[in-house]
Amino acid sequence: xxxxxxxxxxxxxSFTLIAASLMLMLVTSACGDDEPSxxxxxxxxxxxxxxxxxxxxxxxxxxPTVAEATLAFDSAGTAVSGxxxxxxxxxxxxxxxxxxxxxxxxxxxxxxxxxxxxxxxTAILDHLPTVASFILGTQLVLMDSSGKALLTYHQxxxxxxxxxxxATGINNGKGAVTTSTTTPTVTxxxxxxxxxxxxxxxxxxxxxxxVTPPDGISITGVATTRKACAEDLMTLESxxxxxxxxxxxxxxxxxxxxLADASGSTQATFTLTS
Length: 274
What we know:
The chain is of the alpha+beta class. The chain has helices at 10-33, 115-127, 231-246; strands at 50-58, 61-64, 70-73, 79-83, 88-96, 99-107, 133-136, 139-143, 149-155, 163-171, 177-178, 187-190, 195-199, 204-212, 216-224, 249-253, 256-260, 266-272. The strands form 2 sheets. Strands 1, 2, 3, 4, 5, 6, 7, 8 and 9 form a 9-stranded antiparallel sheet that branches. Strands 10, 11, 12, 13, 14, 15, 16, 17 and 18 form a 9-stranded antiparallel sheet that branches. The model is unreliable at 1-8 and 10-43 (pLDDT under 50).
């Protein structure tokens, strides 16, 4: 049997169609593999996460942390805050997949207690503005534009349930968060059953709390015992109970907790006890 030039037999035409279909499937599949999945590290949002420093690159060498330093990304996906081991800082950030830029804002100005902590603080404040990308797995690794690791963080607390805290600052009802020698007498324990309890400066107290993800909180039904104390402790207690009632959001940054009202004004700050 001879094939006429320019004509294709039915068998050959069928084979050609099958081959073309297979090629189309392969191309489509390959294109789909280029899209990041929702579960891939590069597609994971940093918003609402909190971290504790594991190591920092200092003079070209990765040095383990010498003083607790933290990093927290707010749930709105715009603000970043944290500590260096000496001071606290704030700023803004932008994330697109695994690309990340951080712009630092104000920083407190306390003096570090030793050379090692000073070197760690310098590294953190120098590195954060040069961050270009990140890798997120069991740790958060911040890298520069060349892919060099600058700072590595462990994941911090993500839930209030089962944690206990000691106050470091309380809103005085006049728009300022103040600290005194009596502030650490105030404590807060968040139960796994939605209860909150502790010492309010003079008396013990208890109440309930409810968290609305990612960072909403409502603290209600706070009641205290009725022991009389010195005037300064009674004032502190009154301010603290009012601060709890006014709190609508919370931020955990490493071992630090901040409660704020609906306008963003800080109501109380704490450090982790357990």
